[in-house]
Write a structure and sequence with these properties.
By secondary structure, this protein is of the alpha+beta class. The protein is built from seven helices and four strands, in the order H-E-H-H-E-E-E-H-H-H-H. The chain has a four-stranded mixed sheet with strand order 1-4-3-2. 5% of the residues are buried.
Length: 205
């Protein structure tokens, strides 16, 4: 066989091996695509999340420490730099307590709802006789979390004033916008007579 024919045969064999390797790689990529999870579009609904610095046992009380549902909704609908910081007061009934300031950040997190359906084996009398068995589990993307409030700064020093102290009574009257009650407490002289006893509760400068 002449050398030119041998070179052509080698080129043909190389091209065949390349085409085989390409077909194998294509088949592998197809199998990988088939193994990938199903693609789904993100919902248009957005949500506002708060990274609460503590264990929440009562959601209603946790919302009160953040200023109530109205203030939380205002932070949710406003921009990142609007409405000021998110204030947290653990003693929300104390008007003299210092708040912990939180900051809002732009995020791209997902709010996922996980539903689990379980089944328990019960006897004829209704008693549970077997372990809990997971029947079905479903995960669903509910919304996109575009804003998150985080508390990363140090808390200020706190001081507790007794409930019967005139400073606390005046502060509560001012928080209720009860000007008449505040004037009555100031004109009664109770504040001046108890000033010596209250100086121990005023924090140092």
């Amino acid at each position: 066989m002449p050398p030119k024919a041998k070179a052509k045969d080698k080129q043909r064999s190389k091209s065949r091996s390349k085409s085989r390797s390409r077909s194998r790689s294509r088949s592998k990529s197809r199998s990988r695509r088939e193994e990938m999870a199903e693609r789904r579009s993100l919902p248009e609904r957005t949500a506002f999340s708060i990274e609460y610095p503590g264990f929440v046992n009562n959601v209603d009380k946790a919302i009160l420490t953040l200023g109530g549902s109205e203030r939380v909704s205002r932070h949710a609908t406003s921009g990142i730099d609007e409405r000021g910081p998110v204030q947290l007061r653990y003693r929300y009934n104390d008007p003299i307590s210092h708040p912990i300031n939180g900051q809002k950040f732009e995020t791209e997190n997902l709010l996922i709802k996980v539903t689990k359906r379980t089944r328990r084996l019960k006897s004829a009398t209704g008693e549970v006789v077997g372990p809990v068995e997971l029947v079905r589990e479903k995960a669903e993307i509910v919304a996109v979390i575009d804003k998150t409030a985080r508390f990363r700064k140090l808390a200020d020093f706190q001081f507790i004033v007794p409930k019967g102290d005139p400073l606390t009574q005046i502060a509560k009257a001012l928080s209720r916008v009860d000007i008449d009650e505040a004037k009555r407490l100031c004109d009664s002289g109770v504040l001046d007579s108890s000033l010596d006893a209250s100086t121990g509760y005023i924090p140092a400068p």
